[in-house]
Amino acid sequence: MLELDTRTLLVVTALVSMISALALIALWRAQLKGNGSGFWAAGMSCISIASILISGRGSLPDFISLVIANSLYVAGFSLFLRGICIFTGRSPLFFFDYILTSLCFLLFYYFQYVEQDVNVRIIIISIAFTLTCFMIASILLRDKHAPWRPAGIAVASVFTLFGVFHGMRGAIALLSPFQHNFLHESISSTLVFLVGIFILAGITITLILLVYSNLESRFRIISLAVEQSASSIIITDTKGTIDYVNPASAKKTGYLEEELIGENPRILRSGSKTTEEYANIWATISNGNTWRGEFQNRKKNGQLYWEIASITPVKQRNGEISHYVAVKEDITALKEAEKQILHLANHDLVTGLPTRRLAMERLISAISIAKRNKTKTALMFIDLDGFKAINDNYGHHAGDEILKETAVRLCTCVREVDTVARVGGDEFWVILMDISTQGSITKVAEKILDELTRPYKLKKEQVSIGASIGISISPDQSNNPETLIELADHTMYQVKQQGKNNYKLADSTTHLGIPSP
Fold this sequence. Notes:
517 residues; alpha+beta; Rhopdopsin 7-helix transmembrane proteins; Beta-Lactamase; five-stranded mixed β-sheet; rod-shaped
C-alpha cells in the first residue's frame, strides 16, 4: 500500500471534519426542536479542532497538539453519544458524559510527561473510541420498531466499523508495540488517517439521513392523520387561496378536491356572516392569532350545514405567516338538537304553540313595534268554556285532541305575524300586532268565537265548547305588558260571569293596582 504524507492526511482530515461540522451545524439550525443534532454538531466541531491541533504538531506544544487534541477527539465521540441518547429518548450516560473525557485527558498527560509511552496512548484512545462507538450502535439497534430504524442501522454500522478498526489498532499496539510516533510516514499511519477521513464523512452523512428519516416518518404519520381525519381540514396561502383539502372536507362539501384547490373558501359561503365578521376573522389570523367560531356554509348541492372551526396561522422560523390551516367539525346535528331543545323549552308539547315565556317576549316586542309605528297591540286572553266536562266525560286524551284542534282553529283566525300561545290548561293568548283600528280587533274576536263554537268531532261523537275572551289594548289601556295581561285576564272573568262565550274589551278605568307607564 502507498505510504502518504502524514501531515497532508492530517490537513485533509481537518478539512473533512470542518465541512462535516458545518453540515451538522446547518442540520441543527434547521430543526424546530431539540433532537440531539446540536450535540452532533458540537462533537464534530471538537474533532475538527483536534485535527487542526494535531496537524500543528512540531509547531505547537505537545500539551496542545497531543494531550488536548486527543482529549477533544474523545470528547467529540462522547458528544455524538449524548446526541444519540437525546435522539432516541434515552437517559444521559454519566460515565461517558462526565468521566471518560477527563479520565483520558489525565492518562494522555501522564503517558506523555510522566511515563512517555505512545503505545499506551494509542491503547487509551482506541478503548475510548471502541466503547463509545459500540454504545452508540447498541442504543440505535435497541429499538426494533423505531420508524427511523433503517437509517439507524446505517449509523450504527459506521460507528461499529470505526469501533472495530480502533479496537484492532489498540490490540496491535498492545501485542506489537509501535517503534515510532504517529507522524512517521508508514502504512499503518496512512491507513489510520484514510479510515478516519472516510468514517467522519460516513458519520456525517448517516446522521443527516437519520434525522431526515425520522422527520420523514413523522411527516408521513401527520400526513396520514390529516388525510384520514374525520375533521374537515383546509390549508390556504396568505391570500386565502386553497392549497390543500383533506378527503373529509371534500366529502362534506360535495366538491372534488381538484374543484376546491386554487379556489377561495368563500366558495362555501352561505351568506349568514356579514362582511364585517369576515373582516374580523382576517384581522385576527393576520395578526398571528387563532380564530375560533362557527360557520354556516353551503354545500355544492346548495344544502346548508353548520361547522365549528379553528383557523390557525402557520408561522415559519422567522415568525412570518406562510399559510392558514382551518380544522372544522360538522355540528349540524348539534344545532338541530339545540333548536329542538329551544323549541321544546318555548313551545307547548300538546299543541306546539308558544308557551307563556315566549309569548311574553313577543308581547314586549309587539308593544315596542306599535310604539315605533304609532299603531296598536291587542292581547286576547281566551279561556275555553266547557272544557272540564270533556276531560271528565271523555278522558284527558280527548281533552288533548280538543286542545290541538283549538290551536289549529285559532291560528286560522290570525295573521302569520300574530302570535297564538297556550299559557295554561285551557287558556290561550292571542297577540295581534301592528293593528290600526279597534274594529280590526273585534273582527278577529268574532271570528275566533265562530271558529271555537263549531262542533268538535271525537271519534263518532260531536262535542261543543265555547270561549270567553278578554281583550286589552296597547297603548289605549297601558304599555306595560304585565298590566295588559292583568286587564285581559280580569275582563275574561267578567265575560264568564256575564254568561260566557263572548268577548269584551277591557275598561281603561279598571284599577288593578299595577301602575300604567
